[in-house]
Amino acid sequence: MKVAIVILNYNGQKYLEQFLPSVIEHSSNATIYIADNGSTDNSLSFIEQQYPQIKLIQNKTNGGLSKGYNDALKLVDEDIYVLLNSAIEVTPKWIEVCLKMMEENPEIAALQPKILSYSKKSSFDYTGAAGGFLDMEYYPFCQGRIFDTIEEDKGQYNESREVFWATATCLFIRRDAYHVCSGFDEAFYSQMADIDLCWRLKNRGYKIYYCANAHVYHIGEEATNESDSQKTYLNFRNSLYMMAKNYSGTLFLKMFKRLSLDGLIAIGFLFKLKFGNFWAVFKSHMSFYGHLSTLLTQRKQLKKERSNTHLTGIYQGNIVFKRFLSGVKTFSSLESKKFQ
Prior knowledge:
- Helix content is 40%, strand content 20%.
- By secondary structure, it is an alpha/beta fold.
- Strands 1, 2, 3, 4, 5, 6, 11, 12 and 13 form a nine-stranded mixed beta sheet that branches.
- Strand 7 and strand 8 form a beta hairpin.
- Helix 7 runs antiparallel to helix 8.
């Protein structure tokens, strides 16, 4: 299978300078693309002068992660896409190990390696860690990271397994699977677009995996230009969008419960004097109501496309209560029997 590494860039010259050498050194079997989202720094000239072997794709606008990748991947013909954040240091055999798993298991549409922190390499990274899950109310969490509590990597997640979602920070995905689902939902812009895509893939019968035998190092949250309140807004809004589109049960009851839980979390922000985050949750709900008609139309269409839905990776418990009422801080402390 032919492999394309596609790095989405927006004014990220410093990360390209820092991390491209490791990508080139350890990815000799792949074609490397830089998909530029209209950068105004010297990213393009830097690539052209220093790395003429890298293929450049120049998107016309900065549409965030979702539109940026959707536009760029229309021009990429390799069998496997590796969507790679620009602030990642890769390691030897990272591609070979992940690719071998996909070659041996054709039902796997997408997977991620272990994502560790670049600044503290003994710890998991916030974005994706060791593979993602959803709880019964569809709040996301990871092996190695529950909300803002991040674990050290002590080998506790050194077994590859099926998960619910894989992170776009370092995402291996089959070209055909990506396009049959029409790629990322561009309304999401960035946060949770990867979870939404994985959910749509699983509703079509595909599997998503975590490959424990490959790892990369990610700079993480400090590499984003989004404010804390903006990330809160996008996370809460996009999570509601995702549920409305993809949840197959009785939507009204599920959404009412989820909106109520969001309200409790917003009150918690008030007690912590995080007024920006409180307002972000409120705005996310207003956006959900404003777009509900469109979401229901999408839901109706996606329902027609479901086939052999495969929802392994859902925790039959409430991760919010587990974390903040029961004090659970690690994924391994959760009851394994409650994972669907």
